[in-house]
Amino acid sequence: MTYPSVSHADLSGRGVLITGGGSGIGAALVEGFVKQGARVAFIDIAEKPSRELVEGLAKDADHKPVFVRADLSNVDESQAAVREAAQHLGSLSVLVNNAGWDDRHEMAEVTEDYWDKSQAINLKQMFFVSQAAVPFIKEAGGGAIVNFSSISYLLNTGRMPAYTTAKAGIIGLTKSLAGKLGPDNIRVNAILPGMIITERQKRLWLTDESIAAMIDRQCLKRTLDGTDLVGPCLFLASDASAAMTSQTLVIDGGTL
């Protein structure tokens, strides 16, 4: 993977918290912020890959990343994890709400329990993690929240109605939080990735044919991976976007 060569000096030493940072896109984001010299903590439910990521990054990091285990769908647990992470970091300036569950499902098969689980993982936790993080960001004098949505809710895709509902809701949450937190010098923006190829997706549902079909639809004729989201996320977290809030940034290779 190739990481952005640009350096955001203001991120060096800043406290950054990333949800879902143990694998996939989240792991790329953790590494990207570590390479900027930030003090990074991440929350994930999976212990083994998270600890392996920490050890893999520790040897070359200015600040060893911190892993906090939590089930983000549990509000008390997720908010306790935010407080623990902030304590480890000393201060918190940036929150990246990356965690999600992009499970495929048929409309006829969705139960009430499944719907509630999808909303809890994809949308509900984003609000309550932000709620817990905001006092620390205020204490630091302001900062940035970056929420990860998806272009999927704009594609009329029929195989994930619970997921796409949540991803649309994240845009509403982003704009509401931006309005509320702007006076506290906290900027809130969202990133909408396109088809980002992860090992999990290749294992569960992506095929050579489906990948080729999306590349054909994109303007950029290559696959996208987690590193393609690092630069945009660093930009939104840094002073380079100091006057930007309540906005959505589409990173999809030109699909839309």
UniProtKB/TrEMBL annotation:
Entry protein name: NAD(P)-dependent dehydrogenase (Short-subunit alcohol dehydrogenase family)
CDD domains: SDR_c
Taxonomic source organism: Aliirhizobium cellulosilyticum
Any Pfam family hit: adh_short_C2
Molecular functions per Gene Ontology: oxidoreductase activity
Coiled coil: none
InterPro entries per UniProt: NAD(P)-bd_dom_sf (IPR036291), Sc_DH/Rdtase_CS (IPR020904), SDR_fam (IPR002347)
Keywords associated with the record: Oxidoreductase
Keyword Oxidoreductase set for record: yes
Family to which this protein belongs: Belongs to the short-chain dehydrogenases/reductases (SDR) family.
Residues spanning the membrane: none
